Prior knowledge:
The complex is a heterodimer of chains A (492) and B (333). By secondary structure, chain A is of the alpha/beta class. Chain A is built from 17 helices and 17 strands. Chain A has a 6-stranded mixed beta sheet with strand order 5-6-7-3-8-9, with helices on both faces. A 6-stranded mixed beta sheet of chain A has the order 13-14-15-12-16-17, with helices on both faces. The longest helix of chain A has 16 residues, at 125-140. The N and C termini of chain A lie far apart (52 Å). Chain B has a domain at 65-263 and 275-281. In chain B, a hairpin with a 2-residue loop joins strand 1 and strand 2. Classes of the chains: A alpha/beta (492), B mainly alpha (333).
Amino acid sequence: MVENQNVIGTEEVPIITLGDAGVSFGPVQALKGACLSIMAGECIGVVGHNGAGKSTLVNVINGRLTPTSGDVSYDGAQSVADFRNAQRARESGIRSVFQELSLCPNLTVLENYRIPYRNMPIKGWRKNAASAVLASLDAVFPDHGIDPYSVVADLPIADRQMVEIAIAFARRDIDARLVILDEPTSSLDGAIADQLLAYIKKFCASGGSIIFISHMMGEIFDVASRIVVLKDGTIIENDAAQNFTRDGLVDAMGHVAPDDQTRGADTKRRDFGDEVLRMENGLNACQGEVVGLAGLAGHGQAEALAKCFLERTSDWSASRNPAVVFVAGDRSRDGVMPLWSIMRNLTLQTLVEFSRTFLVDRKAEQNIARTWHEKIGIKTDDLNNPILSLSGGNQQKVLFSRALASSAPIVIMDDPMRGVDVGTKKEVYRMIRSEAEKGRTFLWYSTETDEILECDRVFVFRDSEITAELKGDEITEENMLRASFEMQEAGE
Amino acid sequence: MNMNSNNTRVENPKRGASHLLGVFSRKPWIWAFLAAGATYLATLVVVSTSAGAGSLLYAALTFASFSIIVGVGQMFVVTLGPGNVDLSIPATMTLAATLSLKFMASDPTMIVPGLLIAIGVGLACGLFNFALIMLLRIPPIIATLSASFLFQSLAIWSNRGLRIKPPASLADFATGGTFGLPNAAWVALLVSVLAWCVLEKTIAGRWISASGQNTRAARLGGVPVNAVRFGVYVGCAVLAGLAGFVLASFSGGANLNMGTEYMLMSIAVVVIGGSSIAGGNSNVPGIWGAALFMFLIVSMLNSYGLGAGVRLMLTGLIIVSVVVLASKRGRKV
């Protein structure tokens, strides 16, 4: 089954083997009959839609979930269904970086390193931990500039992601042999992501294995030696990477995603209405325009957007005609109400708009929820299920619906496509386009170049200031990168 | 951060006996009522006459009413999330009772203005608390605690050791009953139903819950979070004022330590009643179960004739076990 087994002698034992493993949560079968074995030196790219079972597969491998059927064996050992797979995974050197950042925000970087390393020698552990984390950060992300003694909550989200990745690769009593990276680049900008990809290649070349989950096809093809395609909880393809093409992969995932021909010239040449928004730093937008905020991650774009939203809404009253709405990218910090159902989460913004009294209009609420359930394809049978039962990408769809259901003329989006699959992205692009043509204004911060290319006008941020304003044909990846780095080079 | 979402998914789907448990666990208030019921039955072992049983329940309902009224207010505050708690409830009760009884001066025609005064005092106290929290940015616990010293001093200053009797008709109402239930319980029921409607039916209720789960996300979702906090703190103080008024009318006059026990009582009934101390999740029926339980536990241990030390220790132990049981339900909502 595994073709690229060019590893020698004693390394012939797979690090992990899944034999027909399945996981079900009540009636929901998240993973069905998965067969997979991973050898040393392999980099497995895992692709699939939101809710295709990627996270479940990963959680079976790292032992957080015990399969409800089939078996899992580590290092060729006999499989035992005794809920102790997490420990076995740890002893086999399996480490994970999750899509939802899972560092403790109130602890320092080195303390976070200490948490999974349970039996770390106590004597002088802070110093040892700091040097181990720093060594790993230096190896993966040269020039990172992160202090291991800083508190995680004080770091921008990109730095947090870097720390988490570095901790997974860091030296411990049992060395990392298989590192699972679940959308590691979604909050990193291009340059940093490239550093990570380069490190992954080096790691695999020296005999380590990687499971790499990403929605970015380019990255998958760049690093993966083997690609696993998941759809509706089943592994439908499992083959060497060179046997796939980009289009073939998208087809295998089962979404018909038309290529970039949608970005026609007509959308670029549209006339916009009056200026509806201007901020002190020069950021401005006209009616019906899609304005992009580009630049390296963590250079003040998110802060500018939050400020823009807070200035135009009140702490004291909610308007029936809100001026702006907000789509959060950092879901758990800025968006999701964890105790609530999907429906309640979806209608939070529009409670006042769609109710004539001070009471919640249940009927209107259900209508909105049902409309958007179909329109944006939220993957659930029952909108009364808790929001946390949804996968990350589907939670993001709920947040999108929450904002777009409102009639507000300005929509602010803070890197909203994190963890959203390709098909949904295209769908959302189309929605944004048609809403913009109807006269809505979008402010869109994104770490992904593809998304910025969708915009009518782009402001490039660096060190919380606007360094360039790009229009029409000037919006290219090259121009953006130049504007993001220009001052840095000039300063050095 | 988001570990819980996965933990709840790991649980194995079991059927049968645990299914019943599952039904219970979705109703966190059930534990408070089970505990209250068990305590009641345990007391009946000693108080065997049927008249005794009835009067015990009647007394429990009467005394629980005051805890319920302040507990509902405290519940709203606790719902706002970690760090939110109103410690000025006892002082607000005392001040409202003192001033309103002084104003009425046992004159039956002044009952309505007296009630308005009690509510007005609550309003003022709530405003003061909120101003401390909002304008001076003092943590709510410290703000309400220091405010309570001020309120208490005002009460001492205006009271000067006099004990003014409530108007006779008001006292009759407060100690009397209608349709077999004490009037105080009817007041508590009215307050609870209103609170339940606010939480379940109104936009404000959604806003309170959203602010309690994640204030930043709520603000970015269009919730006027300051208005919500304002409403909650003022509402809590108004309920405390009302409770003080009813309690003083019931016990024949205001005295300076009438509120003391309600400081911890108000928090205890919220927690035992199944509201989440982490915020965002409130529970009105549970407050009734918890308030009844808190009264019945004391009367049970009294009727067993135990010494004061043993009684207090057992009270503590039993409360801890109920809270542990109630919190075993995971994070299902």
